[in-house]
Each structure stands twice: as structure tokens, then as C-alpha cells.
Structure prediction request, 372 residues.
Amino acid sequence: MIKIKQALFLVFGITSFIMFYIGLLNYLTTQDKGMGLIFLIFSSIVAFGTLFAGLYISKNITKPIESLAQRMNEFSKNNYIKKISVDDKGIQELQSLHKNFEDMANIVGGALEKEKQLNLKLHEIDTRKTEFMSMISHELKTPLMPIMGYLQLLKKQELMGELNEKQLDAINEISISTEILQKLIQDVLTAQKIDLGKLSVEKNIVESKTLVENSYKAFNPICENKGAKLVMSLKTTEMVYSDPDRIAQVFSNLISNALSFIPEKDGLIEIGTQDNSDYVTFFVRDNGVGISEDQQKNIFKKFYQVDTSSKRKKEGSGLGLSICEGIVKALGGKMWVDSTVNQGTTFFFDLPKAKIPIERFQSFKNPAKSKK
Ligand SMILES: Nc1ncnc2c1ncn2[C@@H]1O[C@H](COP(=O)(O)OP(=O)(O)OP(=O)(O)O)[C@@H](O)[C@H]1O
Ligand SMILES: [Mg+2]
Prediction:
């Protein structure tokens, strides 16, 4: 790209040269040397005049334009420009362009700086709020331990004395509510850790199939109990580099959710894996009530629950999916949902495949053989 200064020099330079050349050519070829000399002097004056005009224009137009371009560049990089004194003798419009730009840059720069400070403050307040919530949740957790311990003792009647049926029912109710409270506190703590970027994950090389099978084993009896069918569909058995306990947590919330929204009769939940280049995609599919497109946009937000009235069969805090997404992200993957109202929902999450040499891969698949 050519610069304005170069363009002006080119135009004025060529014009001056042509003027001078015409004058010289005329002088060399004309019979009337006197007239030729006058024409040569005249064309030389015009050529030099054009050259000086070029220099003048360059100084007064190109310099301020170049400096303006430079200052704009500086502003776009730093949101700040240094104050400079513009030549008073220059072209008036360009001077006011400089001044107006400087004023505008100061206003915009000031506003941006204020916004930056505000964002920093907000971030600080947010972190403090999260830390405070975290502390409260911890404090709430402490008295829960003895409550749960004594409930267990009360249930062991040989230790604490006989209880009648009504008393036992009451204790069971207290137990259930205490467990819900404990899960809620644990979820708030986990969500907080995710927000603070302090979620601990312990990654290992593990077969994707094992992750699905473990969740299948844990949930099959619960599903059978509720008259629902749980099936596995494994399209890949590749190794992933991930945290099995955290993945069990993700499956647990997704299957529990599915169980809450499938029909009472013919409820079907499918869990499994699919290959997806560098990732293994895990999924939990159900034939439940589904989630509308509008609600899908909010589904991973903390405390979000779809209209509670008709569809819900259970209570919850609305933290489950945000925790699942936080865990998957912390493990280097992503999570998404696909759903059709009245047909069903599928939650997917990707986990990075383990990048290991083929011999090691064999030893992970078949540890007994490799030891020989
Ligand atoms: N499989 C599903 N089918 C239909 N709606 C679902 C499904 N999974 C989740 N949802 C909707 O998304 C909401 C958020 O789910 P999420 O797991 O985050 O919270 P929750 O289950 O209500 O509470 P918890 O914190 O105990 O998990 C649910 O309340 C429900 O409305
Ligand atoms: Mg849930």
C-alpha cells in the first residue's frame, strides 16, 4: 500500500519533470532560440513552483493526516493518546480534526477506564461473595455431621432403645430431609469451587466403556425399582484422560434428571459413547417430557429450573446441570443438550481422548496380559 506522502511526491514530481521537459524540448527544437529560452525559464519556474507546492502541501496536509492515523492506531491499542501540540500555522480543518479527535479519545478513553475499574470491582465483589457463601456452606456442613450420626444411632434400636413405628417413620423423614440438605450444601460448595476455578480433578487414563458401565451398575437397580429401562449403547471404547469420580457425578445427575422426567410407563434411559475425532462423546438420552428451545438456552445456568408446576416429580436446587458443565469444562470438554418437547432429551458431553502410545494402550486395556 502506498503512503499519502509518496503519492503526493509522485504526482508533483512527475508533473514538475514533464513541465521542465516540455520547456527544454521546445528550447532544443525551436528555431527562435530567444522565445525558446523564455519558454524554458517559464516552464522551469512552473516546475519548481509545482515542486515547492508539493512540499508545502506535504508538510501541511500529509503530516497532520499521518499523525492523526498514528494517534488513532495508538488509541485503538491502548485506549489512550498522548497530548501533542499541533502546528498553529497548519490547515485549520485538520487542526480542528486533531483537536476533536483528542477530545473524543479522552472522553471514550475515560469511559473505558471507568468501565475497567468497575469490572475489576465487580469481579472482586463476586469473588468475595463466592468465598463468603463457601464459608457459610462449610459452617452449615459441620453441624450436619453429628445430626446424621445420631440419626444412624437412633435407627440402631439395640443401642438407643426401642422405637415405636411412628417414631421410626419420623426418624426416617428426618434422615431423608437431612440427606437432601447435605446434598444441597455439597452442591453449593461444588458450584462455588467451579466459580472460583478451584474444583479439584484427578485425571487418569481410563476406558470410556468403564465409565459408562460403572454408572449403569449404580443406576440399574434404581431404574428397575422405578419401572424404567436403562440401556447401554457403546459406539466406541476408546480411552479418555479424565476423572472417573467426577464423571460418575455427572452421570448421576443426568440419570437422576432423566428419571424425574420419563413417563411412569415405558420410561427408557439410554447411556453410552460415540466417537468424535479427538474426543469421546458420552450421552444420556431419555424419552421424557423434553425441554423447549427457549428453556434449553438457560438450562446450564445456576439455580435454573424449568417451570415447576406440571412437569416436576421431584424437588432440586437447579444446580446439577451447572455443576455437570463445570466439571466437564474442568476436564477439558464441553457439554450440550438436544431435546424435543414430548419426545425426549439427550445430554451430551465430550471428554478428550487419552493420547498414549499403542503399547501402553494395550496394557491399559489388558493389564493382566501386559504384566506377563
Ligand atoms: N432430562 C430432562 N428432561 C427434562 N427436563 C430436564 C431434564 N434434565 C434437566 N431438566 C430441567 O432442567 C432443570 C435443571 O436441572 P438440574 O439438574 O440443573 O437441577 P435439578 O435437577 O432441578 O436440581 P439438582 O440441583 O438437584 O440437580 C431441571 O429442574 C429440569 O427442569
Ligand atoms: Mg438435577
